[in-house]
Amino acid sequence: MRHALEEASLGSIDTVHLLWAVLLGGLSAVSLPLGSALGLTLRPGATLTGTLAAFGAGALIAALSVEIVAPVVEAFHHDPTSRDALITLMVGGAAGGVLFVVLDQIVNAQGGFLRKTATTIGHLRRTKRRRAREILADLAPVELLRNVPPDEIGEHVEDLYPVLFHDGEILFREGERGDRLYFVRRGEVVLEHRGAPLATLGPGDVVGEIALVTDSPRTATGRARGVVQALALQRSDFDRWRKECPELDAAARELAHTRLARLREHDADRNAEADRWMDEAIEALRFGTELPTAAEIREAGEAHGGAPLAIWLGILLDGIPESVVIGDSFHERLHTAQSAGEIPGFLALIPYTLVAGLFLSNFPEAMSSSVGMRGQGFHRGRILFLWSTLVVVTGLGSGLGFALGAALPEATQAGIQGVAAGAMLTMIASTMIPEAVHLGGRNVVGLSTLAGFFAAVGFALLG
């Protein structure tokens, strides 16, 4: 009878501690809805947002260092037999980083990139680069443009826009004033002079340049044969290109005077030269230092239908590792205290550096993301609801971490902590720091990250 009562008492203590872990996880995530509410109310500027994001990143790095990595390394120095735990931590960290990247890409493909400025910038940069790569691949055969240095052509790609003509459709008419030229990507364009066929031009050819170079009326009519895909360039942009690149201007004049009359044939050497030019041009592209415009963000959001579920899953992906670590660290402190014969209270079990790091990093993350989500057309109520649900999820994740810590051996626990730490560190490096730099600038971010790191370390004095 007495043995049964002892078991029942022990079970109730475990349940209480489990609830404590859930409570602690929820408390660490309270800064999410608070930050969201502040962002929606005050709409802070980019510099302040970047500064706070860097501060949070530094705090989170401190939390990983002090609460996860340092104890395992210290244990190894005092007891070399615990090397398995250290190795498992390192392997788990690598696995966690890879896992985060894979899952992050899956979520982002469904629109989850809209959850943060950094992931939005990354998505738009890749989209622009992909579009530029496609355009440059089509422009590589254009001998005229190979007079433009590869490190400069990337700056002009944005001036081009795609156009489509159906069979028999007129691109321009003889006698008209020329307002643009075309780089043919697909299909053929028949040039007609006074109603008679003059030449047929195809992919890699320039159409309509004579009127722009000579500033005279069109000398021929351009008619699509089949479906024609082309890149159009306005007169004003073409004039600017020629002014900035004398070589292009000279080549354009020569091309205009020779009045291209047939489809250019490219031999193997010319193809190799075209490929080399395209590779150098792509390498010289500069996309990624600029912030996306509001129009670009709205367009990306509309392309994914707003993607509220994907955004929520992305936010959840960022938060799951840290919630598990909270519960596991809570259990580790409990186990240490019980092994010493102590009956600790709730405050004595809190991993202060970890909780402080998470709290401080969650606040600017939610604030910045909420401003962006509002700009995409999300209602305030929905935004606050998304962030509030994460408080519950983080609490449950902390409870899961506590349960795993109680059920698994030390080496396995180290592996789980490693996976979580690897995922968190990858998230910091791939989203938090880049976002802070984009918004706040390098110098501000460096100092703010340093301040956040030592602010979180300072909380260790409480424990």
Please report the number of helical segments.
Answer: 17
Unreliable stretches (pLDDT < 50, length at least 5) are 1-13, 259-270, 285-291
Strand content: 5-15%
CA distance, first residue to last residue: 39 Å
Q: Could you explain the architecture of this structure?
A:
The chain has helices at 2-28, 31-42, 46-78, 83-109, 117-139, 150-156, 209-214, 235-244, 246-258, 268-283, 294-303, 308-339, 346-349, 352-375, 380-407, 410-440, 442-458, and strands at residues 161-165, 170-172, 180-193, 196-201, 206-207, 221-234. It is α+β, with helices and mostly antiparallel strands and 463 residues long. It has 2 domains: 2-126 and 294-462, no CATH class; 155-265, Jelly Rolls. Strand 3 (180-193) and strand 4 form a beta hairpin. Mean pLDDT is 79; it is low at 1-13, 259-270 and 285-291.
Keywords:
alpha+beta, 2 domains, 69% helix, elongated, disordered N terminus
Task: List the topology elements.
Layout (H helix, E strand, L loop, with lengths): L1 H27 L2 H12 L3 H33 L4 H27 L7 H23 L10 H7 L4 E5 L4 E3 L7 E14 L2 E6 L4 E2 L1 H6 L6 E14 H10 L1 H13 L9 H16 L10 H10 L4 H32 L6 H4 L2 H24 L4 H28 L2 H31 L1 H17 L5
Antiparallel strand pairs: 1-6, 2-6, 3-4, 3-5, 3-6
Quick structural gist:
This protein has helices spanning 2-28, 31-42, 46-78, 83-109, 117-139, 150-156, 209-214, 235-244, 246-258, 268-283, 294-303, 308-339, 346-349, 352-375, 380-407, 410-440, 442-458, and strands at residues 161-165, 170-172, 180-193, 196-201, 206-207, 221-234. By secondary structure, it is α+β, with helices and mostly antiparallel strands. The protein folds into 2 domains: 2-126 and 294-462, no CATH class; 155-265, Jelly Rolls (Sandwich).
